[in-house]
Amino acid sequence: MRISVPDAAWRDRLADLDLEVIVWDGSTPQPDGYLDVALWPYDVAPTALAGIDPSRIGLVQGQSLGYDSVREFLPAGGRYANAVGVHEGATAELAMALLLTATRRMDEFGDAQRERTWAKHWAPGLIGRRIVLIGVGGIGSELMARLAGFGAVVVNVASTPRDDVHGIDELPALLSSADAVVIAVPLTESTVGLVDADFLARLPDGAVVVNVSRGKVVVTDAVVAEGGRIGFASDVFDPEPLPPDHLLWTVPHTIITPHVGGMSSSMATRVEALLRRQIGRLAAGQEPDHVVVA
Amino acid sequence: MRISVPDAAWRDRLADLDLEVIVWDGSTPQPDGYLDVALWPYDVAPTALAGIDPSRIGLVQGQSLGYDSVREFLPAGGRYANAVGVHEGATAELAMALLLTATRRMDEFGDAQRERTWAKHWAPGLIGRRIVLIGVGGIGSELMARLAGFGAVVVNVASTPRDDVHGIDELPALLSSADAVVIAVPLTESTVGLVDADFLARLPDGAVVVNVSRGKVVVTDAVVAEGGRIGFASDVFDPEPLPPDHLLWTVPHTIITPHVGGMSSSMATRVEALLRRQIGRLAAGQEPDHVVVA
């Protein structure tokens, strides 16, 4: 078996395996010969996938969970697996950081610290608050585990209702009593623009929207138009990167992180575990897991 | 029965009770006559307790958990109960906000947002990290509940070892492998100066100390002397308030909140529940709970 990894550190991680490991970072021409698996670099845009020869790569293993742009660029015949199980926990952790920053107003304490000012103020916090969590997949489950200890009332919403999960059609009624809404849905035709002007208008003053799914789930202009009536704490944006002159940067009660949900330094450990499982499956003649484009 | 509360809003909250409720905010002379309970204002310094006539107040009910300065000011014969069960959850919540701000470097994203800069960077996060939690009382228990879902290895330390709790004498050995230490101990003779130069020197580079107990548990100069080698995310300080010219404000990787652990706006609901329990106990001829100075 022959695989490629993005750098020498990755080759060292896999030194114990009985296979040929070459370094290819996706920015240079594809190496000669056949690759059973190409571990795609985390920080190279999916546009670079357009240049590969899919007949000579058994599986492109991505390091990201989202893959909405992969289908557009991967040549016909290519096979791409996303990184299930790698980022969900780290992304849920960032969602909690965003939610706590917004509801304990940590950003305002940061402003005061820059001015060396001791400025106490009250904040709503999470205890006894109603948190509407939209999406009960990988990130949603990790969010539920983290939210469980905070004394909030967590209301789960998903496209299909089930035990303890409300259907998305009940959402309008649930928003009017929400103190915070956390968005953890995949980007699909039915979630594009989910958080629009109507959605925001139903939320009470001072409610907070946290988005760790994809930027296009939220209509950015609608958030800007609220002018800070609703808090917005988000890791993903439309457009992304958010350009320096975008109005959103300075809307009050807006907290911006630059799409770093998965960028916990424990990530490589989890990618390695995933890659080793995939190699094991291929060596055993099994289909790889998590193939999302083929 | 006759009680005093700090403002008219408090009187309205208790309007259903069959007793005389007068308004006294502690900053004016004590009202004539006997008070079974005086609900002490949250934001009036304990120094004002020095002016009361303890023979005419059955119980001073504080709204804070800490009471280390009450003993100094309450006249002999006075009886003071602290606010057990009111702040522990909110303080643990702020500790989580501080811990996540430090370990996901939310402060640096805040800096970047001010400059409208999209600046990705990695951060250690909590998944798989070793968190040493010192103190397993009210705040410590609430912290354990909140930490449980984050995928960290939580190591509990208390003055007395027991099942799953290490004794404080084991602390030096535990610090060398800690990614974060959260301080949730009361201020006692044995915890004053617990986090000193020796303590900090044992921590690996980049570890984070979170303090939500009392300022004097940490030797501030020792933190300053580390110069940012250790992250310090704290709600309490020695001195407090931290003066504008204090060096700590600008030590790298320092996150400062101005003693707002209990300042979640859900606090009044919990103080009310405590006050009603105390009134009920007194009406039934029982001793009040949580009397810490008498």
Quick take:
Chain A is an alpha/beta fold and 294 residues long.
Report on this structure.
The structure is a homodimer of 294-residue chains. Chain A is α/β, with parallel strands linked by helices and 294 residues long. In chain A, 27% of the residues lie in helices and 18% in strands. The first copy, chain A, has a 7-stranded parallel beta sheet with strand order 8-7-6-9-10-11-12. The first copy, chain A, is elongated, with a radius of gyration of 21 Å. At the A-B interface, α3, α4 and α5 of A face α3, α4 and α5 of B.
Task: Provide tags for this entry.
9 helices, seven-stranded parallel beta sheet, 27% helix, homodimer, six-stranded mixed beta sheet, alpha/beta, elongated, 294 residues
